[in-house]
């Protein structure tokens, strides 16, 4: 593999990050330096062949490019600019690649602040299920300079089967927010449809199986509808309601900034907020159907 970097860093070994990091360890043929506050996740990364570091600052001294997979822009900003962060020591990475889903305006502001310190930045949020992260078949939507993507692409190819340049800084985040906006709104519509038709007398599973063969078919129906909504299976460990609310809130902010009255989006956000308020923040987000059932 021909790459522009010899030392790679990865911070954030959560549901998606652990698999992405593992694929880097297995495919990049380069040292992968890791840090996470979760001890168990760090131990697993060591088994995968990574080099563990006890702090972000220490990792920064060893990695030329650092990938981030973190819960929010707050965490991204802290890891990059905070005390003990990636820029706090004498040695720092040349390029930071944020695979998190983050606020567009704050992502652009962060990139500008990093540029002042001669550190390049790509926003590269990922889409598809945890199984895709495991298999290295993620969709990775990239915003930033083409030359920076060219430098990082061999590493991104270790984690995703579809690496797409969406435009300048922040454009990767815009496309990712759009992806999740459409998914969440589709699931809300499916949940409403399912309840209406079940109460009219048809089995929900049968309904969705038939719809999946017609013009109403979609990935949301096939994956979320049939596997979760119809059987009411909302386990932990998949895309949580709290994360869904975060992404829909990012979409709502984008809609407001764009001057669009996004009524369907607002309804979806209300359902997710209610689910979180009632204690369902950590379970799979299609649990929002329970909020429709009680209104």
UniProtKB/TrEMBL annotation:
Spell out the catalytic residues.
176
6-phosphogluconate dehydrogenase NADP-binding domain residues: 7-167
User: Does Oxidoreductase count among this protein's keywords?
Assistant: yes
Alphabetized UniProt keyword annotations: NAD, Oxidoreductase
Residues annotated as domain 3-hydroxyisobutyrate dehydrogenase-like NAD-binding = 170-282
Q: Does this UniProt record's set of keywords contain NAD?
A: yes
Any one GO molecular function term: NADP binding
One Pfam family cited in the UniProt record for this chain: NAD_binding_11
Query: What InterPro entries does the database record attribute to this sequence?
Result: 6-PGluconate_DH-like_C_sf, 6PGD_dom2, 6PGDH_NADP-bd, HIBADH-like_NADP-bd, HIBADH-related, NAD(P)-bd_dom_sf
Q: Which domain of life is it from?
A: Bacteria
What the entry lists under PANTHER family is as follows: 3-HYDROXYISOBUTYRATE DEHYDROGENASE, MITOCHONDRIAL, 3-HYDROXYISOBUTYRATE DEHYDROGENASE-RELATED
This one is known as NAD(P)-dependent oxidoreductase
């Amino acid at each position: 593999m021909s790459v522009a970097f010899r030392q790679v860093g990865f911070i954030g070994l959560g549901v998606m990050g652990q698999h992405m990091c593992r694929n880097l360890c297995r495919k990049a043929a380069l040292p992968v330096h890791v840090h996470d506050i979760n001890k168990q996740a760090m131990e697993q990364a060591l088994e995968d062949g990574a080099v563990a570091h006890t702090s972000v600052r220490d990792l920064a001294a060893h990695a030329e490019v650092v990938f981030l997979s973190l819960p929010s822009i707050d965490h991204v900003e802290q890891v990059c600019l905070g005390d003990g962060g990636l820029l706090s020591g004498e040695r720092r990475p040349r390029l930071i690649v944020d695979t998190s889903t983050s606020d567009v305006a704050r992502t652009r502001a962060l990139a500008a602040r990093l540029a002042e310190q001669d550190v390049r930045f790509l926003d590269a949020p990922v889409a598809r299920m945890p199984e895709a992260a495991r298999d290295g078949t993620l969709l990775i939507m990239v915003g930033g300079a083409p030359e920076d993507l060219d430098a990082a692409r061999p590493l991104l190819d270790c984690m995703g089967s579809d690496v797409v340049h969406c435009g300048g800084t922040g454009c990767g985040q815009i496309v990712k927010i759009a992806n999740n906006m459409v998914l969440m709104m589709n699931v809300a519509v499916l949940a409403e449809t399912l309840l209406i038709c079940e109460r009219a007398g048809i089995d929900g599973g049968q309904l969705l199986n038939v719809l999946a063969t017609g013009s109403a078919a979609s990935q949301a129906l096939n994956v979320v509808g049939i596997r979760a909504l119809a059987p009411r299976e909302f386990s932990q460990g998949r895309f949580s309601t709290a994360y869904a609310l975060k992404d829909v809130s990012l979409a709502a902010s984008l809609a407001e900034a764009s001057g669009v009255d996004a009524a369907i989006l607002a309804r979806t956000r209300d359902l997710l907020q209610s689910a979180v308020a009632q204690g369902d923040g950590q379970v799979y987000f299609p649990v929002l159907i329970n909020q429709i059932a009680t209104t």
